[in-house]
Amino acid sequence: MHKQIADRLTAWQAQQLRELPWRRDPAGARDAYSVWVSEVMAQQTRLSVVEAYFNRWMEQFPTLEALASADQQEVLKLWEGLGYYSRARNLHRAAQIVVSEFGGQLPRTRAELLTLPGIGEYTAGAILSLAFGQHEPVLDGNAKRVISRLWDIETRIDLRSTENRLWRLSRKMVEAASAPGAMNEGLMELGALVCRRRNPLCHGCPVQSNCLAHGRGVEEERPVRAPGQKVPHLEFAAAIIWEDVPGQSRMLISQRPEPGLLGGLWSFPNGAKEADDEDLQACLRRAVRESLGVAVRVGERAETVEHTFTHFRMTLVAFHARITEGEPQAVGAADWCWTRLNEIEKFPCPVPDRKIIAALRKLAKESQAAT
Ligand code: SF4
């Protein structure tokens, strides 16, 4: 059964494979650096979005050496908007290690690849099979769904024992494959295009006759998920601290510390409410004091932004503010600086801050038109 499934997925992959810039040679081995970058970018992100980022990345960092010698801020700027910024920081650090410890060539064993920052079991399997043609398994979300359905796995997908079983099945398939990279890609591609989470297209599926869940009519009940958990909602306040006149002078941005959420990126100083009865202005005064060691007067509300991260939903309210006491210092922040609305583009900023910047630009344009 493993061999038959592997052969069918490989044949299907050859017919169906979407044209993407890192798949220049679908029949043969690919450039390991391209595979690595594209696989890291594609985690948690749709391929249609990844394509533009990948092309820009390759223009700026065409080789692993070029990435290794880049400045981290350049790397984060190129990643801006893709989210999960630790992926970019890890790619950068790992490239430097590959240059210094592996002679600039990505290692060809799972054990060595796993020593590099940001390379986990999945990425290692993708690099080894897609770039080096090794019989090494992959298991991303799409592959998990396909395998759970093919073998009608009834245990919860979040359990370690289920995960281990899925890895074993994925390994058996790739070991039976004549073209391991193509088979792995076919497995993941089938999950993305055909064996979809909702309404799988079983009538056009190359492994329909092998699929136990489909045969039993339970495909939409697989994989078995853990009972849903509510995503917490947090309220944040951000300060647009103006040096002089709001809208016409410089404003202060601070760099987020590493490690940590959005580490290395620049944002308007902000903080989350620590108690339900803490008002947003008080929260903001506290957050600015903790990160920059200054007291601020909080002025008018400028913009409200909603954003969802993996583990929480945020409502971020941005206020105009002025320093009333003290000189800014990087107390809790990694760094800080004054910048202007027309200069802020050069800093890598998280999506919520980019929304605030867009609102400020709109306001500036409107006030220019009115004068
Ligand atoms: Fe998925 Fe349906 Fe194919 Fe089974 S038959 S692998 S459920 S698309």
Automatic annotation (TrEMBL):
Keywords: 4Fe-4S, DNA damage, DNA repair, Glycosidase, Hydrolase, Iron, Iron-sulfur, Metal-binding
Entry EC no(s): 3.2.2.31
Group of enzyme by EC: hydrolase
PROSITE patterns on file: ENDONUCLEASE_III_1 (PS00764), ENDONUCLEASE_III_2 (PS01155), NUDIX (PS51462)
SMART domains for the chain: ENDO3c
Cofactors demanded by this protein: [4Fe-4S] cluster
Domain Nudix hydrolase: 231-364
CDD domains in the cross-refs: ENDO3c (cd00056)
GO biological process, one term: base-excision repair
Catalytic activity: Hydrolyzes free adenine bases from 7,8-dihydro-8-oxoguanine:adenine mismatched double-stranded DNA, leaving an apurinic site
Family assignment from sequence similarity: Belongs to the Nth/MutY family.
Protein name listed in UniProt: Adenine DNA glycosylase
Biological source species: Caldilineaceae bacterium SB0675_bin_29
